[in-house]
Amino acid sequence: MIRVLIADDQAVVRAGLSVILGAEADIEVIGEAVDGADAARLARSLRPDVVCMDIRMPGTDGIAATREIVGDAELATDVLILTTFDVDADVFAALEAGAAGFLLKGADEHTLLAAVRSVAAGGGTLDQRLTRRILHEFSERRRASSAQIPADGPPLTERELDVLRLLAEGLSNAEIADRLFVELTTVKYHLAGILQKTGARDRLQAVLWGIRAGVVQAG
Question: pTM score, two decimals?
Answer without folding.
Answer: 0.75
